[in-house]
Structure to design on (259 residues):
């Protein structure tokens, strides 16, 4: 089994390797993980420089459909040279790229095999501009929350918050989530079609970007979808309980990709 691993903005493939080490240790040894670096050098993500040394990378320099599509073309070339991949494992910005790749493929080249057979999204959502270009309806509330959550994430993940508060820094985005259920959040984006490969969605209820992760699960085929709230922030908790749960979900996705 071969797994494509897409890191978050302002990190790297090697950093992502470290971030998933706890649950990866619970997986079979014969899985091949391909940790790629984004094509653009980047400043460190908020708080990352406390724990990891440079270099840091991003998958694009500016948000927007053109940047995402350009990197999708880059990713397509990488897959052609290094794939095929049974599964993609993604975190944060990597989820934006992976979900966009599946949507672009579904709209433009549905007669070809998908870029990967199954997907695991951790703490990440879809690109709202990409969704809107493809005919999805994004509510005003979802747009407002998306902007506010980015600012809240930068604050809660920042170095000063890490040093002063540790794990207590994660407080989510309660002012805009408004106590909405996951189903209510999913209804904020209506889709002309859904991502149709098997997917796993892992998000944290204390993550300012929690709603983005729930939204992404809502544009995927429900019968092929699994979700898990790890209860933390914009991170991959390393507790035994969370690591066991993610490892089990990984193996479910792996089994789906080979069926």
């Amino acid at each position: 089994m071969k797994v494509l691993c897409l890191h978050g903005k302002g990190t790297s493939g090697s950093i992502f390797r470290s971030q998933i080490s706890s649950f990866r240790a619970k997986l079979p040894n014969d899985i091949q993980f391909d940790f790629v670096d984004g094509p653009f050098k980047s400043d460190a993500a908020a708080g990352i420089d406390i724990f990891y040394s440079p270099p840091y990378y991003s998958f694009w320099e500016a948000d927007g459909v053109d940047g995402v599509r350009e990197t999708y073309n880059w990713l397509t070339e990488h897959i052609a040279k290094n794939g095929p991949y049974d599964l993609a494992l993604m975190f944060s910005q990597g989820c934006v790229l992976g979900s966009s790749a599946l949507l672009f493929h579904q709209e433009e080249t549905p007669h070809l095999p998908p870029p990967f057979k199954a997907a695991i999204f951790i703490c990440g959502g879809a690109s709202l501009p990409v969704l809107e270009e493809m005919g999805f309806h994004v509510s005003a509330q979802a747009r407002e929350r998306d902007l506010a959550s980015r600012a809240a994430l930068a604050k809660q993940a920042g170095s000063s918050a890490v040093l002063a508060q540790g794990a207590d820094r994660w407080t989510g985005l309660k002012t805009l989530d408004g106590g909405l259920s996951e189903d209510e959040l999913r209804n904020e984006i209506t889709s002309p079609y859904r991502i149709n490969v098997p997917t796993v969605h892992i998000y944290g209820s204390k993550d300012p970007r929690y709603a983005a992760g729930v939204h992404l699960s809502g544009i995927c085929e429900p019968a092929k979808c699994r979700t898990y709230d790890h209860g933390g922030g914009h991170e991959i908790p390393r507790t035994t309980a969370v690591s066991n749960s993610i490892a089990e979900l990984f193996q479910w996705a792996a089994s789906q990709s080979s069926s």
